[in-house]
Amino acid sequence: MTSRQRGKLVDEILHYRDGQLLILLPLTLMKHSIDEYPAPYLMIQNYVSTHPENLCLRMTISE
């Protein structure tokens, strides 16, 4: 992962933390990074792929 890509991911995670984004964007960036730079440890993490995508559980904001 380049430093630019890493910086973008960190920015999106911070925006999510601050409540400015849904979790979907940081997770999508992480998935793309894992696809581009495979790391077996990351590929088996449940957090990256917790729910069937067709349920759209990451599309809602809960307070």
Automatic annotation (TrEMBL):
The lineage of its organism: Bacteria, Pseudomonadati, Pseudomonadota, Gammaproteobacteria, Enterobacterales. InterPro entries: DUF1722. This is DUF1722 domain-containing protein. Residues 2-52 form the DUF1722 domain. It comes from Silvania hatchlandensis.
